[in-house]
Amino acid sequence: MTANLPETKSVRTPFKADHVGSFLRPERLKKAREQFKEGSITHEELTRVEDEEITKLVSAQLENGLTAVTDGEFRRTWWHMDFLLGLDGIEYTETGEGIPFNGIKTKAHGYKVTGRIGYSGNHPFLDHFRKLQEIAGEGVKVKYTIPSPNMLFFHSGIETGLYQNGEDFYKDLIPAYRAFIKDLYDAGCRYLQLDDTAWSLFFSEESRALARAFGSDPDRLVHKFAEAINGAIEGRPDDLLVTMHICRGNFRSSYASSGSYEGASEVIFSKLNVDGLFLEFDDERSGGFEPLRFVNRPDLTIVLGLVTSKFPELEDEEQVKARIREAATYVPLQQLALSPQCGFASTEEGNILTEEEQWAKVRHIAKIAEEVWGPKA
């Protein structure tokens, strides 16, 4: 007779060799998107090109050592805007000036809150996910990325009178996110990543001053950001892995902000209910590993972004291993993993390296991870 075993909670963890999600758009895809904008091909023709290029991408990810695959964000123009524009009450706008990135600027595209924020249940990303899952096929781990709810902090609708202050909009946004995540889960998603650049508000005094300029106390706002993340994923099923990527900006191999995690470390590492954190540690702009001392959960994976996606040169393998060992003085080695510090193309323009150089980076990560943690750990 079989004994009744106690029910155990499943362990949710990123893979030891993982990635942030976006990949360089092939020239064929870029051309097709331009042709669609010009009206020389139909949406159906563009979708066919996207499907074919994503099929190639999924194969390339597996062939180069990854376990979880994404669609590379090939159907998006921006890593965040395409998702947010699919929510109720948010509309596209021309900003007149692009976002500054260390001497260069993005396209002057933006979004604004024009009505009460909500979710109507027909978000295009649901179909995008279903197509990715169909392309990946049975048995392949599929990862899907969306922006964090905190990406609306600078676009909160105060000027329209819809919301009273820069944080009031969360009361509508959090239920909208929770409903979308439920629909995404019902569509089959079991690995979700939230991408978030807003946390950089707490990483330098200059950035904290920017938060104050928006009428928020940064020491209080950091807890509001955590509440937004936790609220969005509250009640998620036990088999849904949720991670978050904290970014300092990634456009054409440049960046938008600097600073150590120290300014928000206690909240990030001990207050967030995510299963894993993808963190930038590829250069001195991110500071050292000391903030990891606040990790107080044995089920939280820290994915070290020690390999840059911005430049083609491969990092010295032994130096990467040495940095992993250094991080392991704060967090047990089995709670660590390895990835690029960011995606390879947070916008459709992409970083300044070739596709082969991109895949060399991915293979480099997979090789180091296997040597540190074992094959397909």
Automatic annotation (TrEMBL):
Which CDD domains does the record match to this protein? CIMS_C_terminal_like
Record key words, sorted: Methyltransferase, Transferase
Keyword Transferase found: yes
Cross-referenced SUPFAM superfamilies: UROD/MetE-like
Gene3D superfamilies (UniProt xref): 3.20.20.210
| Cited InterPro entries | Met_Synth_C/arc (IPR002629), UROD/MetE-like_sf (IPR038071)
Q: Does the keyword Methyltransferase apply?
A: yes
Domain named Cobalamin-independent methionine synthase MetE C-terminal/archaeal: residues: 169-349
GO MF terms on file? 5-methyltetrahydropteroyltriglutamate-homocysteine S-methyltransferase activity
Annotated GO biological process: methylation
Q: Which EC numbers characterise this protein's activity in its record? A: 2.1.1.14
Q: Which NCBIfam families does the UniProt entry name for this protein?
A: PRK06520.1
This chain's protein is named 5-methyltetrahydropteroyltriglutamate--homocysteine S-methyltransferase
Organism, as annotated: Bhargavaea changchunensis
